[in-house]
Amino acid sequence: MTAPIMDVNRCPWCGSDPLYVEYHDKEWGLPVYDDRQLFEMLVLEGAQAGLSWLTVLRKRENYRCAFAAYTDEDCRRLLADPGIIRNRLKIESARKNARAALLIQKEFGSFASFLWQHAGQIPLHNNWQTLAEVPARTEQSDTLSRALKKRGFNFIGSTICYAFMQSVGMVNDHLVSCYRHAEISSIAARR
């Protein structure tokens, strides 16, 4: 973990926890086109349902290890693993969603192509002044949620989809007062 940039304006949701600040500064809102990374974020967003994102971030590396070679027999092992969220439905959802993602890859050439079509293939840029303005879901996240559910995904409601879209840069929801808003807008414009 690298030291966070000090003395800059950030989105207030990241607080002062170094892991959260680093996630905000280096990852959140940056456009992602890698299938593996996109799927990982979708699994983590589903695991987060009902919990804080910081809880999930702290368990992220454990998720990578736990699901690296997941088989049917691993469900019991994972339910006993304190390094991840021990919820049977969320664990089984990750496997079910992986199978559905592989079918999407086969049909669309990549998971990214399928997902990004719900943002018009380019990041959407908002200009929120306050956290109160940022929606929990949008028409695009509703559409993405329905499309994923139709293809067999679960733990994938519109609110989870919108959080996912924010995290992987399909939408830039950094507040305009945050130093990352302009950076993300600039990066996305060059794509």
What is the overall pLDDT average?
90
Rg from C-alpha positions? 17 Å
CATH superfamily: Hypothetical protein, domain 2
Largest sheet data: 2 strands, parallel
Number of helices: 9
Integer count of domains: 1
Strand order, largest beta sheet: 1-2
Low-confidence stretches: none
Overall number of strands: 2
Task: Examine the coordinates and then state which fold CATH places here, giving the name of the CATH topology.
Answer: Endonuclease III, domain 1
CATH class, anyone?
Mainly Alpha
Helix % is 40-55%
**Helix-strand pattern:** HHHHHHEHHEH
In the CATH hierarchy, the architecture is: Orthogonal Bundle
Distance between the termini: 27 Å
What general outline do the C-alpha atoms trace?
globular
Secondary-structure-based class equals mainly alpha
Name the beta content range.
Answer: under 5%
Features:
single chain; 191 residues; mainly alpha; Endonuclease III, domain 1; two-stranded parallel ribbon; 2 strands; 2% strand
Short description:
54% of the residues lie in helices and 2% in strands. It has 191 residues and is mainly α.
Can you describe what's shown?
The chain has 191 residues and is mainly α. The protein has a single domain (30-190), classed as Endonuclease III, domain 1, CATH 1.10.340. Helices cover 54% and strands 2% of the residues. The chain contains nine helices and two strands, in the order ααααααβααβα. The chain has helices spanning 18-26, 35-48, 53-66, 74-79, 88-108, 111-116, 139-150, 158-167, 179-190; strands at residues 124-125, 171-172. A two-stranded parallel ribbon has the order 1-2. Helix 2 (35-48) packs across helix 3, helix 2 (35-48) runs antiparallel to helix 5 and helix 7 (139-150) packs across helix 8 (158-167). The radius of gyration is 17 Å and the shape is globular. 32% of the residues are buried.
